[in-house]
Write a structure and sequence with these properties.
The complex is a heterodimer of chains A (111) and B (119). In chain A, 0% of the residues lie in helices and 55% in strands. By secondary structure, chain A is an all-beta fold. In chain A, the strands form two sheets. In chain A, strands 2, 4, 5, 9, 10 and 11 form a six-stranded mixed β-sheet that branches. In chain A, strands 1-3-8-7-6 form a five-stranded antiparallel β-sheet, with no helix packed on it. In chain A, strand 9 and strand 10 form a beta hairpin. In chain B, strands 2, 4, 5, 6, 9, 10 and 11 form a seven-stranded mixed β-sheet that branches. The chains are: A mainly beta (111), B mainly beta (119). At the A-B interface, strand 5 and strand 10 of A face strand 5 and strand 10 of B.
Chain lengths: 111, 119
């Protein structure tokens, strides 16, 4: 079942913060976050595993609340390069589980 | 890092013809690869799971006779769109995962995608 992402779109000015949410009606084992720029393939950002963890690098971080079956992606002090469509992908356990992606959140960062 | 190469990047074909798309893992072995289809401004929809040495697993609603998948080696999976029609025009992307020591924390690497236009 497809996870639900919100918001569908967000427009920021450079330096502003944003939060993108991903929720599922099914129990989650893992949540992946990817960014896709127009006409390109998605690029892996980070993965969160069952256990309520939070992780991040530079100014992009994410949290995973398995009880609420939710994950959030936090973009801090956004840069122009952050523009793109962000997808969360949810998966089950195992080594090569398939991912089900949300509909995406279009993030536009303006100067 | 893991690299997945996909060819061709774009293809235009006539209605009724077949098109083959290749997906290669360049620096790792991929026993499993995934094929997605993406329509403009829409999400990635999983079409099938390609397994090396065995039959692919197709998602509900995907015609296995129309979208032929062959995973002949640990580094190559191919998707053939047979008897293509204009409604098959889309962006097709493959992905795979490098199952190394850090596997649980490793994301999937996507190929660069193939834009198929059927005229």
């Amino acid at each position: 079942q497809q996870p639900v992402q919100s918001p569908q779109a967000v427009i920021l000015r450079e330096g502003e913060d944003a939060v993108i949410n991903c929720s599922s009606s099914k129990a989650l084992y893992s949540v992946h976050w990817y960014r896709q720029k127009h006409g390109e393939a998605p690029v892996f950002l980070m993965i969160l595993l069952k256990g309520g963890e939070q992780k991040g690098h530079e100014k992009i971080s994410a949290s995973f609340n398995e009880k609420k079956q939710q994950s959030s992606l936090y973009l801090t002090a956004s840069q122009l390069s952050y523009s793109g469509t962000y997808f969360c992908g949810t998966g089950s356990g195992g080594s090569n589980y398939k991912l089900t992606f949300g509909k995406g959140t279009l993030l536009t960062v303006n100067p | 890092g893991a690299v997945v190469s996909q060819h061709p990047s774009w293809v235009i074909c006539k209605s009724g013809t077949s098109v083959k798309i290749e997906c290669r893992s360049l620096d790792f072995q991929a026993t499993t690869m995934f094929w997605y289809r993406q329509f403009p401004k829409q999400s990635l929809m999983l079409m099938a799971t390609s397994n090396e040495g065995s039959k692919a697993t197709y998602e509900q609603g995907v015609e296995k006779d129309k979208f032929l998948i062959n995973h002949a080696s640990l580094t190559l999976s191919t998707l053939t769109v047979t008897s293509a029609h204009p409604e098959d025009s889309s962006f097709y992307i493959c992905s795979a995962r490098d199952l190394g020591p850090l596997t649980p924390f490793t994301g999937y690497t996507f190929g660069s995608g193939t834009r198929l236009t059927v005229v």
